[in-house]
Amino acid sequence: MATQGERGAGQGMPDGRSEGSARAYELLEPLVRAATVRVHAPSGGYDSSGNSWSGPTWGSGFFIAPGWVLTCAHVVGEGGAAVRLVGREVAITFQSGSAAGNGAASGTVAGRVDCVLPERLEGRRPGRRALWDLPDLALVRVLAPVSHACAWLTDRPRPRLAEVAYFGCTEDLGTPEITGRTTRLRGSAGNGAAIRLGGEDEIEPGMSGGPVVDLATGEVVGVVKARRHTGGGGLAVSVVQLRTLPLVPATGQVGTYRRVMQAHDLYHYDEHRSDLNSRRTWTDVHDELPAPDADPFGARGRLTAGERTTLCGLLAELPAPGSSEAVRALVEEARGEEPDPSAPAPLSWRDGLGLLRDPPGGEGEAAAMLRYATGVSVAVHREPPSPGADEELWDWVRTTAERLWRRLRRELAERRARGLAEAAARRRASAARAVHHAHGAPPRAAAALPTGPSVLLEAWAHGWEDVYDWRVSVLAGPGRVTPVESGVRATLAALPEALRAPLAEAFRRCDTHEAAALLEVAVAPELFGLAVDEWPGAGGVPVGVQRPVVLRHPADGPDPQEAARRWTRVQAGPLPDERADCAGGRPRSPSPRWLAGLADNTVPVHCRAPWLEPTLGSLLAVRAAGYGVAVCRRPPPDPGASCEPYHRGLREEFTEAGRGALLPQRFQALRGRVHGADPDAYWAAGVALIWNDPGRPLPEDEPLQGDL
User: Which pLDDT band, with edges at 50, 70 and 90, does 90 fall under?
Assistant: First the structure.
């Protein structure tokens, strides 16, 4: 006889739900209600009495980690545009205790808004009854230690179009209470940031900020955002958008996101291992959920619920990955193909597991996840892991592989041995460099550009019109270009806003804990005055202050051997400078013969507007002569101002740098001084470094133009 789960996968219920999803709702509803909270105005302190539900409901939210509530930004923005979001205190009413459905009492605690997404909501919000900009999320930090339940967040980069349940605070019976409804996901919006909810049931006022749960997987996949004015259905925000939390400027640290997700995974890991009570945990329910009709991989192809929870907990006990690209590299090796490049950058080891769902081939995701975990166990971390944490992860991998097949166990052992040998070699090389520096050699390499991937921004003029096509990519080396996003027909004035989100995503993929990645701007010389370095970055700090920014010629360069020779000489230094477009303050056009006769390590300097002659022609001539490093600037507002302070300041910079390899970082420091109102650096306002590295060729194709 078929089990209920087997029957439920194919048979329907009168309300449109399958029997399987109805059973899943019964199992999940107590857990989700226990984690869901009511968000309202603070009542002047902590309160666990019967009046904790008093006052108007602003919306809903849910605990995602001990002390952390996820909700919508528009929920904590109740009160209008004059209300400051970050730092605002709110009241959180919740079911006390770590379980649901057991008559747990409700309590109220104060919370403070820690951050909102997008950041610009702090200064620019829509009018009343208008939709707030995506992703419209807020993280609230609870201001007292309380006992509460936490929801399980998905690690999948994209939600499945499946039956779901959504929960929130309603007042159907005259008093506020947490209730749930069911519907289906109907598609996505906002480049995947939002999920469309079907109209099978109605989203009531007050449910904004509540969780949306996939009934097949038992994972929270979204946050209720809005309902249709005409009736049922609406929008939710994908929880994966939490990965777009701002990075710490100039360091690339993951910050809040990594801390919250680490606490999330350790909470569920501890709940799974605890023998203190017999209540169902999320892991227990995941194990009881009805199985789908047909699983191409079967039991051996997927980790069990307990194994997945344990793996997430063990990964959470390790230091954070050095960069998003480090996670993606291990995923690609374990999966056998490049992961989806359009998904938000993976910022934690856990995020990598979501990229391993349903891999190609016949082995299934369990084998891919074990390969990935093996790679993590031998990864070089920026700080030492807790004693034994990496060994504990490897012991778990080896034990779990025993239920699969012998060939995989042998493969994992060989991967582990290779990884340990490579890690030991890296440590020896690092120790040798430290000894070399200790004996008096100048540690200049530490201040040079990081060797990892960079962010590439390309822009092309759209015919003769004053609009531009653009593309943002990750440039990891020759032939290794991963597109992030592209667009067409943007005006110069619209470029900063159009590129804000794509650049932020690319930075998340490339930044490491030690350094912010280089931004390479490949545009025609007439656009070398584009003030990309002054565009606002995370926290409102200009991009050029947070990271090194350089310009690149998009066209083919000069003779490769000549370019490589000049590049090598400039990188080694010293750095004599030559004025290319002026002589004694008067404009001039350099001749090809004069440029060819300069020393290979010369840095040509331009002081006039790059979009006008003679500077435009000079930039092209310098490029044709094989110079990979040059300097230009956006001229000062006063056309009569002398260029002597500019040339004098650059000469001092070149002398102190000693070699070209350090220039991108030194120019970043100069921009920081200008931003910090250092009068001694005002000469550097608008300075730009042209940096055509022959070892990092640009992609040869251009993005497709829109309809003419």
Answer: very high
